[in-house]
Amino acid sequence: MIPLPKSAAAASILALSITTALAEVHVTTEHHENPQSTPGFVFNSVPRPLRNDAAAKAAFTVIDGRRDRNGGDVNKLHDGATPFEEDQPSENFFFAGDGGRLLVDLGKAINIKQINSYSWHPNSRGPQLYKVYGSDGKAADFSQEPKRPSDPEKAGWHLIASVDTRPAKGEAGGQYGVSITDSTGSVGAYRYLLFDIAPADTSTGNGNTFYSEIDVIDRDVPPAPEEPDKSVVTYAIEQGRYQFSINSVDAPNLADWSAASLAPAVEKWYPIIAKYLPSPGYEAPRRFSIKFSNDYHGVAATGGTHIECAPDWYRRNIKTEGVGSVIHELVHVVQQYGRARVHPGARIPGWLVEGIPDYIRWYLFEPESHGADIRSANALARARYDGSYRVSANFLNWATNKYDKELVPKLNAALRGGEYDDNLWKKYTGHTVQELNDEWKADIAKNLGLPAPAPAATADSGGNSSNANTLTADEKAVGWTLLFDGKSMSNWHNFKRDGIRPGWEVRDGSLVCVDPQNAGDIVTFDKYGWFELQLDYNISEAGNSGIMYHVTDDGGAVWATGPEFQLEDNEKAHDPVRCGWLYALYQPPIDPKTGKALDATKPVGQWNHVRLLISPTKCEHEINGVKYFEYVLGSDDFNQRVAKSKFAGMPGFAKAASGYIALQGDHGSVSFRNIKIRKIEPKQ
């Protein structure tokens, strides 16, 4: 058997042949990069995954190596249900460590027409790297469970094919399909298949492939024709230039509405939005997906090219805002402002991330609904250009009509290219954004017959301390920078998505998680290695939050890679891990006055001050000036504690030398202010 070369670049098809004396084995592989991947695993030459193939009733067993507990069990490989998006660990099977061996028992020997395997991951864990062996179990020297490093061919097994889909160049992330066939119509008559699986990426220690499905096709008993799955429907736009899927598995009573009302609107408006928001060298994603998920609460949210919708909300709003809300999310699919992160210092104001989609929704898609109108004195008093969503949409519509018909496309191109700054308003309109804000509000007041409001620059500050969210000259001199200025969330975005979900707001100079059901965790745009972080927090009754550091995109959640400085209401929160502790790893000593772990927190409703030091020689946790403990990342003590904790099964936990700072937003209301950070340069 000759070794197989690596696959070609994205969206490629590669057919490889292995010749024996009796037959010729063909290995066909295809690769869709992330923007072109859809839940249906639709390839040109590799068949789609099946639900009723010969593997559906087979027994899958790990005989060597161990399953990564962050993923699904081996049944995920033959349940006929493929992942909905590229980073769903629980919907894939993958090994921990350096791979392993997987035994498939088909129950009896069959003539195998095809062996098809499928994988999907946004980064280096997408490509497939394995050898597959077959046996009828009748050889005298047959061993059903040969362990590594033994050679299966010396234990009654026949090597069918070697598979290696790692790209020779380009991005490794995306969706892969492999089909193994034979020129005779059968790769062999086998009862058992043995997959010897190796990590696709050995550079990180966390590079095992996310395998989504393995199908085995019986030549003599082909799978019965499958009824079209009405719960997952794929649509083509402009003769296949764009494709999207709608998944209503969790909401079958929304399937008819999706087909009759939602899909036609998406088919019409996605290419319109893509054309309206261009930028040099950019092409809107050609594949995207929409899923109604019982696991999601709120309205809808977009991550990359995947839109997740809350079924309960859509059931209540299918005749009103249902379609329009998805149009808003389609704009997020097209925006792809995450591209700007490659530009050092690029900032993406959250109010524009959400304001542009609502502008397109309320003023281009459904202007007759007047859903973003400001109609009262109270609404006008609260309005600011950066109020996000409908308010910012109203401001953008006013500025577009009064100053520049191409204002929104220009802003979009600057945001995507990492070139946005507030000076662009002066360039495009001749006015600063604050001047535009005052003029906009004056025009609305005039139309409503109201007195002109006072300029925002002289408006009341809401009672905030005059020095909140500011730095002194001395602080600036030693390298402190603000992560929050009290006005915008421009330094933050939700984990693994552009923009910030509506559950986070700026209120009275504070960054506030107002709706934990629709907030999610937020992370900084910049990454930090060694640093000192200080902030104030004010938590709700029974609230629970956290500060994570060294967070990377490799994990499915921020806590999968980043250690957590716990924040909570120590009086009424249910989590036994208390405020200031390093979650599940370190806690402060016993306070002799109380007989309990040291607790320096102030009661709910009061501001508490946090200091977190992360340096090569020590890490310190402080609350309200009281030091809780210190530790050293990567020390024997630290590693031993990790090994005994729930994080032992998370191969990327606390491994990165730098990463994002994260604030947790899904366990209760919490407010932050005075968030500042100082980088620490390691001594040479």
Give a topology summary:
Layout: E1 13-19, E2 24-32, E3 59-67, E4 95-121, E5 129-135, E6 158-164, E7 174-182, E8 188-197, E9 211-218, E10 232-237, E11 242-247, H1 255-276, E12 287-292, E13 300-303, E14 306-309, H2 311-317, H3 322-335, H4 350-365, H5 377-382, H6 389-402, H7 407-416, H8 423-429, H9 433-448, H10 473-477, E15 480-482, E16 492-494, E17 504-507, E18 510-513, E19 522-524, E20 531-539, E21 544-551, E22 564-568, E23 590-591, E24 596-597, E25 608-614, E26 619-623, E27 626-631, H11 636-643, E28 660-663, E29 670-679
Parallel strand pairs: 11-12, 12-14
Antiparallel strand pairs: 1-2, 2-7, 3-4, 4-7, 4-8, 4-9, 5-6, 5-8, 10-11, 13-14, 15-29, 16-19, 17-18, 18-29, 19-28, 20-25, 20-29, 21-22, 21-28, 23-24, 25-26, 26-27
Largest sheet composition: 9 strands, antiparallel
Fraction of residues in β-strands:
25-35%
CATH topology of the largest domain: Neutral Protease, domain 2
Termini gap: 51 Å
List the domain count as a whole number.
3
